[in-house]
Model the fold of this input.
Amino acid sequence: MSAKSALNKAVFLPNDERMLAAVQVRRRTKKKIPFLATGGQGDYTTFICLSVTNKKPAQVFLTKVKQFEGSSSFVRRSQWTIGQLRQVNGIDSTRDCPEFDLMFENGSDQWIAGSAGEKCVFVQILHHTCQRYIPERKPDFINCHSKLLGAPALPQHLIHSDANSNDGVSVIVSISSFGSACKVDLLWQQKTASSQHEPNSSSLRYNYSV
Done:
Protein backbone atom coordinates (compact mmCIF):
# COMPACT_ATOMS: atom_id res chain seq x y z
CA MET A 1 0.00 0.00 0.00
CA SER A 2 1.38 3.42 -0.96
CA ALA A 3 1.89 6.15 1.66
CA LYS A 4 -0.98 8.20 0.24
CA SER A 5 -3.35 5.23 0.20
CA ALA A 6 -2.40 4.47 3.80
CA LEU A 7 -2.95 8.14 4.64
CA ASN A 8 -6.43 8.10 3.14
CA LYS A 9 -7.34 4.90 4.99
CA ALA A 10 -5.96 6.02 8.36
CA VAL A 11 -6.96 9.69 8.47
CA PHE A 12 -9.93 10.36 6.21
CA LEU A 13 -12.04 7.23 5.81
CA PRO A 14 -12.63 6.90 9.59
CA ASN A 15 -14.04 10.46 9.58
CA ASP A 16 -16.39 9.69 6.68
CA GLU A 17 -14.28 11.76 4.28
CA ARG A 18 -12.81 11.06 0.84
CA MET A 19 -9.29 12.19 0.04
CA LEU A 20 -9.28 13.87 -3.37
CA ALA A 21 -5.57 14.65 -3.57
CA ALA A 22 -2.41 14.77 -1.49
CA VAL A 23 1.05 16.19 -2.05
CA GLN A 24 4.19 15.48 -0.05
CA VAL A 25 5.88 18.76 0.86
CA ARG A 26 8.62 20.45 2.82
CA ARG A 27 8.89 24.09 3.81
CA ARG A 28 10.95 26.48 1.70
CA THR A 29 11.82 28.37 4.88
CA LYS A 30 11.94 26.50 8.16
CA LYS A 31 9.99 27.87 11.08
CA LYS A 32 11.85 28.28 14.36
CA ILE A 33 9.99 26.00 16.76
CA PRO A 34 11.22 25.29 20.30
CA PHE A 35 12.30 21.70 20.94
CA LEU A 36 9.62 21.23 23.60
CA ALA A 37 6.90 22.33 21.17
CA THR A 38 7.72 19.47 18.79
CA GLY A 39 7.84 16.87 21.55
CA GLY A 40 11.32 15.86 20.39
CA GLN A 41 9.86 13.37 17.92
CA GLY A 42 12.56 13.83 15.28
CA ASP A 43 12.21 13.90 11.50
CA TYR A 44 8.85 13.67 9.80
CA THR A 45 7.15 13.72 6.41
CA THR A 46 4.49 16.33 5.72
CA PHE A 47 1.48 15.98 3.42
CA ILE A 48 -1.04 18.61 2.34
CA CYS A 49 -4.33 16.81 1.70
CA LEU A 50 -7.56 17.82 -0.01
CA SER A 51 -10.66 15.98 1.21
CA VAL A 52 -14.44 16.16 1.05
CA THR A 53 -17.05 14.85 3.47
CA ASN A 54 -19.49 12.17 2.37
CA LYS A 55 -22.29 13.81 4.35
CA LYS A 56 -24.34 16.39 2.46
CA PRO A 57 -23.99 19.30 2.15
CA ALA A 58 -20.40 18.40 1.40
CA GLN A 59 -17.58 20.25 3.14
CA VAL A 60 -14.10 20.44 1.65
CA PHE A 61 -10.94 20.71 3.73
CA LEU A 62 -7.22 21.23 3.29
CA THR A 63 -5.37 19.36 6.02
CA LYS A 64 -1.72 19.24 6.98
CA VAL A 65 -0.75 15.73 8.10
CA LYS A 66 2.58 14.52 9.48
CA GLN A 67 4.13 11.08 9.67
CA PHE A 68 7.07 10.83 12.03
CA GLU A 69 10.12 8.77 11.12
CA GLY A 70 9.84 5.18 12.26
CA SER A 71 6.07 5.39 12.75
CA SER A 72 3.33 4.00 10.55
CA SER A 73 0.70 6.33 12.01
CA PHE A 74 -0.31 9.78 10.79
CA VAL A 75 -1.02 12.91 12.85
CA ARG A 76 -3.37 15.72 11.80
CA ARG A 77 -1.81 19.12 12.42
CA SER A 78 -3.65 22.04 10.82
CA GLN A 79 -6.91 22.12 8.90
CA TRP A 80 -8.70 24.78 6.86
CA THR A 81 -11.98 24.83 5.02
CA ILE A 82 -11.63 25.44 1.31
CA GLY A 83 -13.57 28.68 1.83
CA GLN A 84 -10.65 30.02 3.91
CA LEU A 85 -8.27 29.61 0.96
CA ARG A 86 -7.56 32.98 -0.64
CA GLN A 87 -4.72 32.36 -3.08
CA VAL A 88 -2.69 29.58 -4.68
CA ASN A 89 0.63 30.79 -6.07
CA GLY A 90 2.32 28.43 -8.54
CA ILE A 91 5.47 30.62 -8.46
CA ASP A 92 6.31 30.23 -12.17
CA SER A 93 3.84 29.79 -15.04
CA THR A 94 6.53 29.28 -17.70
CA ARG A 95 8.45 26.26 -16.40
CA ASP A 96 8.08 23.17 -14.26
CA CYS A 97 8.85 23.87 -10.61
CA PRO A 98 7.90 22.14 -7.35
CA GLU A 99 7.38 25.33 -5.35
CA PHE A 100 3.95 26.72 -4.47
CA ASP A 101 2.32 28.91 -1.82
CA LEU A 102 -1.04 28.60 -0.12
CA MET A 103 -2.54 31.77 1.36
CA PHE A 104 -5.41 31.58 3.84
CA GLU A 105 -7.43 34.15 5.75
CA ASN A 106 -5.12 33.88 8.76
CA GLY A 107 -1.73 33.23 7.21
CA SER A 108 0.24 31.54 4.45
CA ASP A 109 2.69 28.69 3.90
CA GLN A 110 5.50 28.31 1.38
CA TRP A 111 6.05 24.76 0.18
CA ILE A 112 8.25 22.62 -2.05
CA ALA A 113 6.52 19.50 -3.39
CA GLY A 114 8.26 16.17 -3.87
CA SER A 115 8.35 16.90 -7.61
CA ALA A 116 7.02 19.41 -10.14
CA GLY A 117 4.65 16.74 -11.46
CA GLU A 118 3.21 16.02 -8.01
CA LYS A 119 2.57 19.73 -7.47
CA CYS A 120 1.05 19.96 -10.96
CA VAL A 121 -1.58 17.28 -10.21
CA PHE A 122 -2.39 18.69 -6.77
CA VAL A 123 -2.90 22.25 -8.05
CA GLN A 124 -5.05 21.05 -10.93
CA ILE A 125 -7.37 18.98 -8.70
CA LEU A 126 -7.49 21.79 -6.13
CA HIS A 127 -8.51 24.27 -8.84
CA HIS A 128 -11.33 22.08 -10.15
CA THR A 129 -12.51 21.38 -6.61
CA CYS A 130 -12.69 25.11 -5.90
CA GLN A 131 -14.71 25.66 -9.07
CA ARG A 132 -17.19 23.01 -7.98
CA TYR A 133 -17.59 23.68 -4.26
CA ILE A 134 -17.10 27.45 -3.86
CA PRO A 135 -20.07 29.35 -5.36
CA GLU A 136 -18.52 32.80 -4.95
CA ARG A 137 -15.29 34.48 -3.84
CA LYS A 138 -13.18 31.72 -5.28
CA PRO A 139 -9.44 31.80 -4.45
CA ASP A 140 -7.03 33.31 -6.97
CA PHE A 141 -4.67 30.96 -8.79
CA ILE A 142 -1.65 33.01 -9.85
CA ASN A 143 1.60 32.09 -11.62
CA CYS A 144 0.09 28.76 -12.69
CA HIS A 145 0.36 27.35 -16.21
CA SER A 146 -2.87 28.10 -18.07
CA LYS A 147 -3.30 24.45 -19.03
CA LEU A 148 -3.39 23.55 -15.34
CA LEU A 149 -6.50 25.67 -14.92
CA GLY A 150 -8.20 24.92 -18.21
CA ALA A 151 -8.07 21.12 -18.50
CA PRO A 152 -11.27 19.07 -18.64
CA ALA A 153 -13.13 18.84 -15.35
CA LEU A 154 -12.51 15.69 -13.36
CA PRO A 155 -15.40 13.31 -12.64
CA GLN A 156 -17.56 14.59 -9.79
CA HIS A 157 -17.16 11.40 -7.81
CA LEU A 158 -13.38 11.37 -8.19
CA ILE A 159 -11.67 10.08 -5.07
CA HIS A 160 -8.25 8.76 -4.19
CA SER A 161 -8.19 5.11 -3.22
CA ASP A 162 -6.50 1.82 -3.89
CA ALA A 163 -7.35 0.09 -7.15
CA ASN A 164 -8.16 -3.01 -5.08
CA SER A 165 -10.28 -1.22 -2.49
CA ASN A 166 -13.91 -2.02 -1.82
CA ASP A 167 -15.20 1.54 -1.68
CA GLY A 168 -16.59 1.46 -5.21
CA VAL A 169 -14.38 3.96 -7.00
CA SER A 170 -10.67 3.99 -7.69
CA VAL A 171 -8.34 6.47 -9.32
CA ILE A 172 -4.90 5.75 -10.73
CA VAL A 173 -2.71 8.77 -11.40
CA SER A 174 0.58 8.57 -13.27
CA ILE A 175 2.82 11.54 -13.87
CA SER A 176 5.74 12.17 -16.19
CA SER A 177 7.50 15.42 -17.00
CA PHE A 178 8.69 16.35 -20.47
CA GLY A 179 10.59 19.63 -20.48
CA SER A 180 8.11 22.39 -19.79
CA ALA A 181 5.09 20.10 -19.87
CA CYS A 182 3.71 17.70 -17.30
CA LYS A 183 1.61 14.91 -18.74
CA VAL A 184 -1.12 13.67 -16.46
CA ASP A 185 -2.84 10.39 -17.07
CA LEU A 186 -5.95 9.81 -14.98
CA LEU A 187 -7.65 6.46 -15.08
CA TRP A 188 -11.06 6.45 -13.52
CA GLN A 189 -12.62 3.13 -12.67
CA GLN A 190 -16.22 2.86 -11.59
CA LYS A 191 -17.01 -0.56 -10.17
CA THR A 192 -20.53 -1.87 -10.51
CA ALA A 193 -22.12 -4.99 -9.10
CA SER A 194 -23.63 -7.64 -11.33
CA SER A 195 -26.70 -9.66 -10.45
CA GLN A 196 -24.32 -12.16 -8.84
CA HIS A 197 -22.77 -9.29 -6.83
CA GLU A 198 -19.47 -9.73 -8.60
CA PRO A 199 -17.62 -6.48 -9.39
CA ASN A 200 -17.44 -5.38 -13.01
CA SER A 201 -15.67 -2.22 -14.04
CA SER A 202 -15.88 0.39 -16.72
CA SER A 203 -13.18 2.98 -17.20
CA LEU A 204 -12.86 6.49 -18.49
CA ARG A 205 -9.36 7.73 -19.28
CA TYR A 206 -8.29 11.36 -19.45
CA ASN A 207 -5.04 12.18 -21.23
CA TYR A 208 -3.89 15.75 -21.37
CA SER A 209 -0.76 17.82 -20.97
CA VAL A 210 -0.52 20.57 -18.41
